[in-house]
Amino acid sequence: MIDETIDSYIATAPSNIALVKYWGKRDSTLQWAANDSLSMTLNKAQTRTTARLNRDHSDHFTFEDPSIDESKAAKHLNYLRTALGFEETLTITSENTFPSSCGIASSASGLAALTIAAIAAWTRSASLDEMEIRGFSKDTLAKLARRGSGSACRSLWGGFVYWQTGESPDTQIVAPLSNEYGKQSPWKLADIIVVLAKDKKSISSTEAHQSAWSSPMFTPRLSGLSERIDSIIDAIDKRDINILGRHIENEALEMHAVMMTSEPKAEYWCKETPQLLSWIRKQRQIGALKAWFTIDAGPNIHIICEQTEQEKVINCLNQSFKGIDIIVDSIGNGPKLEIN
Ligand code: PMV
Fold first, then answer.
1. 193 C-alpha to center of ligand 1: Å?
2. Amino acid 180: pLDDT
3. In sequence order, what are the residues at sequence separation of 6 or more whose Cβ sits closer than 8 angstroms to the Cβ of residue 166?
4. Which among 189, 304, 178, 309 is positioned nearest to 245, based on CA atoms?
5. Are 47 and 115 in contact (CB under 8 A)?
């Protein structure tokens, strides 16, 4: 039974789509990424997690989304408690604002929300500002969330977020690009997610990260990445969708080439994936759409375009593929914390 006298700490954290992918680790315990990555924070795809102190001997979890990996969440909660010296156990409930089991990874938003909600409960913080006063700035929260899932560290900010690997696991930096470029408002980009398959991954991304080093394409990828990142940051700064689009497509294809040439192989595509990629290219060639793709560790396709192009992309998809399953999202803000 829920004790109504105990506060609920409710964290809402956004998911993010990587434009430059984090793929492979230099240290898997300390979550030291093999390369710098850059993401766009999403608006609708969020996880809402509530933490309550439970005066019990163990943590309790209730996840509305059956695809959420409870053991990953439990492990991360134990890591946080031990690393930070807290003792109290928690009751955690969590739900995704995007449809459950839609095949869209929720680990970034999920682990970011869990980190914020749990620490808010332990430190009795009612807002992110209060958490900062108690020693948990967004930088600190990002470092802690990263230990649960690498990509979660980029979900602590809105807009475009840059995760730099630094010289050691401790000197990794995560920061929003908007700080560097001082733009008044974010570039209004859309992410139209085409859900092609909802099955559980044949190989988890945790496992596949490990095998990245075995691909003959991995080391060449690492040596060429800084040039690509510079071009992408420049394209974001100039708001040049043509240049951004060209680079993000090459980036996604390169990551999947590494996955497909690793041992064991990680083949995430389904048979419709390449068909849809060809369709997007074709629409561009004939001048019908200004839209580009990126793909995470799964078969589903994220179509990136300016929001002014969004309706055209949706109409065109619906006309070409009857009954196609799409989720329309866009660039969004960072996490929130409230108390109830
Ligand atoms: O954070 P993880 O361990 O789920 O790895 C994320 C890997 C990709 O989604 C494929 C790329 C990325 O940078 O988000």
1. 16
2. 46
3. 172, 173
4. 304
5. no
Q: Which helix (H) or strand (E) holds 236?
A: helix 218-238
CA distances to 95, 177, 305 from 261, in Å? 35, 32, 30
Please check whether residue 156 is in contact with residue 142, taking contact to mean a CB–CB distance below 8 angstroms.
yes
3-class DSSP state for residue 229? helix
From the CB of 37, is ligand 1 less than 6 Å away? yes
Distance 54 CA to ligand 1 centre (A): 32
8 A C-beta contact, residue 296 and residue 17: yes
Phi, psi dihedral angles at 9 (to 5 degrees): -105, 115
* 30-39, 74-83, 94-103, 301-310: segment of lowest average pLDDT: 94-103
240 C-beta neighbours (distance < 10 Å), count: 14
Substitution site in 22, 67, 111, 262 for ligand 1 pocket (most atoms within 8 Å of beta carbon): 22
Burial tier of 57 (Cβ tally within 10 Å: 0-12, 13-18, 19+)? exposed
CA torsion angle 177 181 182 188 (round to 10)? -60
Under the banding of pLDDT at 50, 70 and 90, the label for residue 197 is confident
CA torsion angle 240 241 242 245 (round to 10): 130
Strand, helix or coil at 91? strand
CA 24 / ligand 1 centre spacing (Å): 9
Q: What is the pLDDT of residues 255-305, one digit of tens each?
A: 999 999 999 999 999 999 999 999 999 999 999 999 999 999 999 999 999
State how far the Cα of 243 lies from the Cα of 265, in Å rounded to an integer: 30
Phi-psi region of 162 (alpha: psi -120 to 50; beta: other; left: phi over 0): beta
Q: For residues 55 and 51, give the distance between their C-alpha atoms in angstroms, rounded to a whole number.
A: 13
Question: Is there a contact between 21 and 302 (Cβ–Cβ < 8 Å)?
Answer: no
Residue 179 CA to its chain's centroid (Å): 20
Q: Six-digit token pair at 120? A: 């808010």
Tally the residues of the chain. 340
